Amino acid sequence: MTSLYAVLGQPVAHSRSPRIHSLFAAQVGAQLRYEAIEVAPERLAETLTALYAAGYAGFNLTLPHKTAAVALCESLGTRAEHAGAVNTLIRTPGGWRGDNTDGVGLVRDLRHNLGVAIAGRRVLVLGAGGAARGILEPLLAERPQELVLSGRNPWKPEELATAFKALGNIRPCTHLALKGDQFDLIVNATSAGHHGQAPRLPPGLFAAGALAYDLNYGKAAAPFLEWARGAGAERVADGLGMLVEQAAESFQLWRGVRPETGPVLAALRQD
Ligand code: ATR
User: Fold this and answer.
1) Domains parsed from the chain with CATH numbers
2) Catalytic-role residue among 66, 165, 179, 219
3) How far, in Å, is the centroid of ligand 1 from the Cα of 155?
4) Does 199 contact ligand 1 (Cβ within 6 A)?
5) Beta-strand (E) ranges in the chain?
């Protein structure tokens, strides 16, 4: 029998998840269909109920549903609890179980695809919204020397740093106050790229050999990565690898088998 999966979002037509999961399915010989379904925020609850009744086996959630879906889950994994957001729903007999594979996807992309170690390194995360929240626990679990969380204003970074301080060495900051600091890895978790902008940052932030990483891919990643090249980053990467890695983690949660990500990432880069 063909199992049904989908990514729910608004907008969702641009999503590359259906392509990724059909490549995974072909690779492991799974019989499944994976769709992109446009869902307005006010219709998320009823849609999840209807699609449960229709027999769907799991979902990925993208903007704007990741936070709102938490309250609609029958149970939550600890990663989703810490992130306060879910990107993966797994069908259980009692309802939907929520998990969050974004952060592990990022860490796997950094370690396995880009060969970047986080342990003992100085890491800067830009932006203190939902995207940052989703990656802090897995980044801190890698034991960076320090993780600095920076925003335009101090309040949101302070709030998030307080929420995550039990999990590792995290320090809140403002972009302006970063002046004089240097980092081995700078992760852009702001939404500025969706408005064609890069966050305004002081010069001199990149240590020798540093990597600039944008959680977005495609056009939305361009402003930050362009700025980073000009500001001295030796390497830059967009979030396409993270997208494929988080998808593989979701696939494993649903199907119990982890597909190989390398060939799928290579295929997407060719598209
Ligand atoms: P998400 O929930 O996907 O993380 P968001 O909360 O809308 O998206 O945005 C994430 C962060 O992007 C915001 O917290 C904001 O950070 P600060 O207000 O703490 O600086 C940041 N952001 C949005 N637009 C920005 C811009 N034009 N320049 C710099 N930062 C921006």
Assistant:
1) 3-100 (3.40.50.10860), 103-241 (3.40.50.720)
2) 66
3) 13
4) yes
5) 3-9, 32-38, 58-61, 75-76, 88-92, 95-99, 122-126, 146-151, 170-174, 183-188, 206-214, 235-237
Residue nearest ligand 1's atom 17 by CA: 151
Angle 161-167-168 from CA coordinates, rounded to 5°:
75
Q: What percent of the chain has pLDDT over 70?
A: 100
Q: Give the torsion sign (CA, 258, 262, 268, 271).
A: negative
The minimum-distance atom of ligand 1 relative to the CA of 152 is 20
Active site residue 179: no
pLDDT digits 0-9 by tens, 24-80: 999 999 999 999 999 999 999 999 999 999 999 999 999 899 999 999 999 999 999
Q: Is 191 in the pocket of ligand 1 (CB under 6 A)?
A: yes
